[in-house]
From TrEMBL:
Name of this chain's protein: Flavin-dependent oxidoreductase
Keywords carried by this UniProt record: Monooxygenase, Oxidoreductase
Pfam families noted in UniProt: FAD_binding_3 (PF01494)
Keyword tRNA processing: no
Organism lineage string: Bacteria, Bacillati, Actinomycetota, Actinomycetes, Streptosporangiales
This protein's record includes keyword DNA-binding: no
Length: 413
């Protein structure tokens, strides 16, 4: 059995490494003519970092990342609402990585080249469609650089890891329609700054109506003076949105007004935003969960299968869990169509829950709950507003949905 993987993003590369480990031959086809470090920060939670650790990547990732030690929630006045340990500090066997997406991608790509060979990833292959018969699946490609046709590729099975703009998803679901806009626009960037709070804190501040901020370090001591590379995400309710393109440039003046008075004793937010090299803009969008991923010898994985609103640090994590499930099933399979159906049966219900939960009750609803109970005013004591037990329960419910609370993930489990 050989598998063609369409897309050399995080999902496609992890799948290739897992298939190689399982003894299933594969090749990855990527539209980009060259692979460059793109994006900004990303979080890999312990349920996904366990998969990467199982691939022997923990040492390489630890060298590039900050190991997140806590999650902290504040209102827009800088008052502490709730904090809880994260990653190994919370008892998980594997860390939570806060890392630049480009660094994560580079670690995965180096591992693929080392283990599968330098020809394992075919670049400049833009997929235009897939056909199949009883003997196999057949992919058609054109070059991205010159729009020239390329030889057709045959495989026993095809896995579409080609992201939110998946050509293969569109082929099998042509009437799906446009992405669902959440009403929230997002701006992202990185800046060099002094460590704040624990130096390994993932922080969420404020709420979407007046401006919300997610901020965390993704690289330590970037200049020899102890400064960190700090990732930030600004989210604001906005009636209009732009095309979803992870690398679209944004304008600081479009959103910084919401944060001008956010001068906290642990971080000067407007100063951080203004010191960023560049700003990226992306709408908070997802798609309605599909009723089907697999079509005989073809299936979907990661963002091609379940694009979700980027909350809860779970987009890449769920793709990694997809790769684990599919590779495990394919390792013992003789019928690729049956294996794809079994994979979908295992993963589609789980990811549907995450997609819907990210819309309604991601972890940061902790801040919304406090805002609603206080009328968006400062409080004297958080205990007079909401108990720590209730806050912990909100966090725990999301972990249950995301697959992070299983005892097997915890130390001694």
């Amino acid at each position: 059995m050989d598998i063609a993987v369409v897309g050399a993003g995080i999902a496609g590369l992890v799948l290739a490494l897992r298939l190689h480990e399982a003894g299933v031959p594969c090749r990855v086809y990527e539209a980009a003519p060259e692979i460059k470090p793109l994006g900004v920060g990303i979080n890999i939670l312990p349920h996904a970092s366990e998969v990467l650790g199982g691939l022997g990547l923990e040492k390489a990732l630890t060298a590039e990342a900050v190991l997140t030690a806590e999650s902290v929630f504040f209102n827009r006045f800088g008052q502490l609402i709730y904090r809880e340990p994260s990653g190994r500090a919370a008892g998980y066997r594997y860390p939570q990585y806060s890392i630049h997406r480009g660094s994560l991608h580079a670690v995965l790509l180096a591992a693929v080249h080392d283990r599968l060979g330098s020809g394992a990833v075919a670049l400049d292959h833009r997929c235009t469609g897939v056909a199949q018969d009883e003997d196999g699946a057949y992919l058609t490609f054109r070059t991205t650089t010159g729009d020239a046709p390329l030889p057709r590729v045959r495989a026993d099975g095809v896995v579409a890891c080609d992201g939110v703009h998946s050509v293969i998803r569109r082929q099998f679901h042509p009437g799906e329609g446009e992405p669902r806009y959440s009403g929230v626009n997002m701006w992202r960037g990185t800046a060099v700054g002094r460590p704040f709070l624990s130096g390994a804190s993932m922080v969420r501040v404020g709420w979407l109506d007046r401006g919300k901020l997610v901020v965390y370090p993704i690289r330590d001591d970037v200049d020899g003076a102890g400064n960190q590379l700090i990732n930030w995400v600004a989210e604001i309710e906005t009636p209009h949105h732009v095309t979803r393109d992870w690398n679209r440039r944004g304008e600081l003046n479009d959103f910084i007004g919401a944060y001008e008075d956010w001068h906290f004793d642990w971080l000067d937010v407007p100063a951080l935003l203004r010191s960023s090299d560049a700003v990226l803009e992306y709408p908070m969008v997802d798609q309605e969960p599909l009723d089907r991923w697999s079509f005989d010898r073809v299936t979907l994985l990661g963002d091609a299968a379940h694009p979700m609103v980027p909350r809860g640090s779970n987009g890449a994590g769920q793709a990694i869990l997809d790769a684990k499930a599919l590779s495990t099933i394919l390792a013992g399979a003789s019928d690729v169509s049956a294996a794809f159906r079994a994979y979908e049966d295992r993963r589609r219900p789980a990811t549907t829950k995450v997609v819907l939960t990210n819309r309604r009750t991601p972890p940061d609803v902790i801040i919304r709950e406090v805002r609603d109970r206080t009328g968006d005013r400062p409080f004297d004591r958080i205990e007079d507003v909401i108990s720590q037990e209730e806050l912990a329960a909100i966090s725990r419910r999301y972990k249950d949905v995301a697959g992070m609370s299983a005892q097997s993930l915890m130390t001694g489990g």
